[in-house]
Amino acid sequence: MDTMPKWADVILIPLINLILALLVSGLVVLYIGENPIEAIGILLDGAVGSTRGWGYTLFYATNFIFTGLAVSVAFHARLFNIGGEGQAAIGGLGVALVSLSVNWPHWTVALPFAILGGAVFGAAWAAIPAYLQARRGSHIVITTIMFNFIASALLVYLLVNVLKVPGSMAPETAAFPKGAHLPNAYEVLGWFGIPFNKFAPLNIAFLLAVICCFGVWALIWRTRLGYEIRAYGHSEAAAVYAGIRPFRITMIAMLISGALAGLMGINAVMGEAERLVIDSVQGAGFVGIAVALMGRSHPLGVFLAAILFGILTQGGIELEFEIPAVSREMILVIQALVILFTGALENMVRMPVEKLFLRLKKKAG
Amino acid sequence: MAMQTTEGRPDAAALSTEPAIELVGISKAFGPVQANKDISIRVMPGTIHGIIGENGAGKSTLMSILYGFYKADAGEVLIRGQKTEIPNSQAAISAGIGMVFQHFKLVENFTVLENVVLGAESGARLTPSLAKARKLLVELAREYELNVNPDALIEDIGVGMQQRVEILKALYRQAEILILDEPTGVLTPAEADHLFRILKGLKEQGKTIILITHKLREIMEVTDTVSVMRRGEMTATVKTAETSPEHLAELMVGRKVLLRVDKKPATPGKTVLEVENLSVTDIDGVQRLKDVCLNVRAGEILGVAGVAGNGQSELLAALGGITAGTGHVRLNGEEIDLTGRFSDGQSRRARGISHVPEDRQRLGLIMDFMAWENTAFGYHHDPAYQKSRLLMDNDAIRADTAKKMERFDVRPPDPRLKAKSFSGGNQQKLVLAREIERNPDLLLVGQPTRGVDIGAIEFIHQQIVALRDQGKAILLVSVELDEILSLSDRIAVMFDGQIMGERLPAQTDEKELGMMMAGMLKGG
Amino acid sequence: MTLMTKFFGAAAAVALSAGAALADPGLIIDLGGKFDKSFNEAAYNGAKRWIEKTGGKYKETELQSEAQREQSMRRMAESGANPVVVLGFANASTLDKVAPDYPDTKFAIIDMVVDQPNVESIVFTEQEGSYLVGMLAGMASKTGTVSFVGGMDIPLIRRFACGYAQGVKAVNPKAKIIENMTGTTPAAWNDPVKGGEITRTQISQGSDVVYAAAGGTGVGVLQTAADEGILSIGVDSNQNYLHPGKVLTSMMKRVDNAVFDVFSKGVDNFEPGIKVLDLKANGVGYALDQYNEKLITPEMKAAVEAAKAAIIAGDIKVHDYMSDDSCPVETM
């Protein structure tokens, strides 16, 4: 019954959407009196034109993979987790506490505990909205948004009053011990003799993100739990008929979602900053929503969308650096246009393309 | 165009009067699906014209084109000989076409009068319209037995009454041609009889009526002419007096169909299900089931008759573990927890209760899941479906599904097809295959043939009877009295959440059951 | 494969250019915005003055979030900018980490000490300048109650407050000093609305001179003071012009001079180590111009100038809050 081949659905349509978004962005750049071709050149060159660019692009993409997966898992259970931002922030706190707690002998020892810390803290932060949804019917969109604010306030309190280095003025923790340093791309690729930019923040957490993509895929499409999550997401009434308990699924889906968001701390806090600062998430929790929407909640889609948003983020920073007239807000406009075209206006492209394929099919048949 | 068609059909030329409505060569495709294919039909004024066909045969599409919801890809509509464009429902109304939908389009918290006038107000002020409508309503009520209290709120009146409001709405808009889509689905037999009397009255006044239904009995009872549709095409138009139900069924399905259920007398064994004082209160605090007591024995079908919404759904839901209740339910003598805390759909299945829910699209299937995923639905803990403690064995499920699909003749037999891609009958067969093949002690089955084509009905009935003959207990809920009467070994009638009484099929008839269903006759 | 070589080529090119003699200086504007009329703007004015004087070019980028510091610093260093000036204490830990990776790039950090061979740490004796404006506040106050609005609650800002309080007490030992901080996060540097609210509260408690050491938040403090008809004291830049006749003075912290100096000396004359810009070095001071000349009487001016000379001579010691995290003068 499908009118289009799968490749058109998965690749062609997003591509057309992306090109449309870039065209409109080009008009915006033109409007402020800059050359759009040059701007896109700088953006792409800054994002993927060097190992430094890749190092940052993939670093940002790693953040977005974690938050995108978090939104996706919840979305399979039709739970709209807007709280990725807060869960990632609290996850980062967990990672920081683990990293600071012991003078770790080696990162291979520290990493499993840090993963546990980030996941548990992130999950715990998602648990309360999940419980309120499952038991009290408080809408999860509202509660998770609220919890973003609470997380932010809590982190400020802890960083200012509890975790700050005595005598220091900056609201940040002490630098993590050397043993908690995660190898970055330069070091990892160095083992294989591949040169890479020395200072780019891309680190081993990227591999963890890839593993999580695979894990989420297996969870959703290969396990009983994933089956129940999807069934519940498609129809709560039918799930109850089949003996799937809404409370259990709501809790588990949100815990997994929160844990994935919390793992972002491995990348941003342990992998890059090596200390906990205020606002370590930098809006990645919200970008994760766009990433999940664009990636259709499929890990592969999330992976690709995260890289796209990584390119936009890193390329945008470069663009801002090279052309001061293109301000931070302009970059946001471009990102918003991409979200608009790939998410909200998707059907605008889909309909004509479907018709086109139908006509081609009729001709062929 | 019209000339050619007339020439191509010599019998049409013989008719002297001009048709009230004529469709010529209507075609409509949705993507690759050809819903209507070159359909031509002529409906004479002052007649009741039935359109019958299986689900998905294209009846509703055809009527939607006539009412301006869809635009035909080809063909034209002639009203009283005039070629008429119907781009929207306003155009349909001004062409004198009125439509009564299967699902009523009424404003619940408006009065009857307000609903009738809604959208057809003359002028900015409401009062004159209301006064005019009130007068008209009184006249219509006298003429056609269309008695309704104009000041009652829609939410306070019954479905039969609501349907009359829909008819009044159409008449108020001066409809000359009235289309009714499956009008008896929600009515008691008595209400249906009443509706047919109204329709006959309207016919005598010169109105033209198109009746869409899948029920052969209704066609035989009220129509003058009947058109049969199959797979988007019009296969025949015949005079009702010159045909028989068997012949119509054959035209619909394309092969000979057995309309009666062929079954041996039951040989009931030990009691499998005992229900004692089962009560269910819904989330709004309304008591939906009141001290229901019944039992079902092995090798017997207990049919629960009743008008939709009288507690049958809640009975199935409580027994199937979907909702909690109070009272006692015993399966093979063992108590089942009703609080919902220790027992849900999973544990009921494990105890040997299979459940074919009333609403397969909302409960029984996940429409976006593939057939194989739906086959595991509710049984996804089955050890045969697991690869390891964590992973499901999707290949095994697909293989099992393919087997089940073959045994139950599900078409197309592709386990990777999504549930929503199957026709209603095949969806139902998927559910039945899943539940019956589990070899349960007790089968709960609700509306097994709702929205299912005649060919599949025959098959489904045979499967249910076969399960009974294996000595299993079956609790059947249906709003189709025909089905209850022909399948059940015992009949319980529900009204307002209570069991009104039990009857043996041989010792009762539709009339008595109908009275009990309406709550007018109580009997143990 | 060609693609890969291209990347490595590019990476190598970046590494090379980092040490190249292109050497436009760079400035990283801190959180709170370039035109905060205070700290950041002072730095920007220094850079602007350097351009006007030399006709040179410089690179500039503006921080958007706390977590972006490292990327901005590295980006600036890798773009070949040299020397690079970063503004504010919050950069210290990041710079400490980044500086060793770019040994050929010279960094200067304002308001904090980073002990690296290629870093110049520029600190100001804010307590001294604050002492002087505190004296002016004490003399100008009619109610005997003056107040202080800080930005983020950190020792550096307490140093401002403590110097101010000492100055007030020096001229009026019975004076009451109200001290409030806007917040505990960097957001407190850029919250003029809250600044205004705090000022209003202080006015209701009797304050008639308010000193704002709060970056962009101070704009709201000065505005409210002007609206409510009390005097205010600006900070960092000369803010007297914002509300002529209503701003008593400004505690000048010559961040502009610091930036100008670093830019002017360039790479060749770069001086690593700690540089203290005190009253003597004209690093801090109070502003007197056509906008506030009517507010400062000759007696006031004489008293302040005497104190200034005494401080420079070492006769008056203004206590530095950060030396022992406490202040000898009580505030409320």
Task: Label this structure with key terms.
heterotrimer; A: 365 residues; mainly alpha; 16 helices; 76% helix; 0% strand; globular; B: 524 residues; alpha/beta; Rossmann fold; 3 domains; six-stranded mixed β-sheet
**Number of strand elements of chain C:** 12
CATH architecture of the largest domain in chain B: 3-Layer(aba) Sandwich
Cα distance spanning the termini of chain C: 69 Å
Largest sheet of chain C: 6 strands, parallel
Provide the low-confidence segments of chain C as ranges: 1-21
Shape, principal axes of CA atoms of chain C:
globular
Q: How widely separated are the two ends of chain B?
A: 64 Å
Helicity of chain C, as a percent range: 40-55%
| CATH level 1 name of the largest domain in chain C | Alpha Beta
- Largest interface: chains, residues each: A-C, 40 and 35 residues
CATH T-level fold name of the largest domain in chain B: Rossmann fold
Regions with little confidence, pLDDT below 50 for 5+ residues of chain B: 1-16
How would you portray this structure in words?
The complex is a heterotrimer of chains A (365), B (524) and C (332). In chain A, helix 4 packs across helix 13 (284-294) and helix 9 (224-234) crosses helix 11 (246-262). The relative contact order of chain A is 0.20. Chain A has helices at residues 6-31, 36-48, 51-76, 84-101, 107-136, 140-162, 185-191, 205-222, 224-234, 236-241, 246-262, 264-273, 284-294, 299-322, 328-344, 346-364. The mean pLDDT of chain A is 90. Chain A has 365 residues and is mainly α. By secondary structure, chain B is α/β, with parallel strands linked by helices. Chain B starts with a helix and ends in a 7-residue tail after the last helix. Chain C has two domains: 2-125 and 257-277, 3-Layer(aba) Sandwich (Rossmann fold), CATH 3.40.50.2300; 127-252 and 285-324, Rossmann fold, CATH 3.40.50. Chain C has helices at residues 2-19, 39-54, 69-78, 92-98, 126-140, 155-171, 192-204, 217-228, 255-265, 298-313, 321-324; strands spanning 26-29, 59-62, 84-87, 107-110, 119-124, 145-152, 176-183, 209-213, 231-236, 247-253, 273-277, 284-286. In chain C, the strands form two sheets. In chain C, strands 2-1-3-4-5-11 form a six-stranded parallel sheet, with helices on both faces. In chain C, strands 7-6-8-9-10-12 form a six-stranded mixed sheet, sandwiched between helices. In chain C, helix 2 (39-54) links the parallel strand 1 (26-29) and strand 2. Classes of the chains: A mainly alpha (365), B alpha/beta (524), C alpha/beta (332). The interface between A and C is large, with 40 and 35 residues.
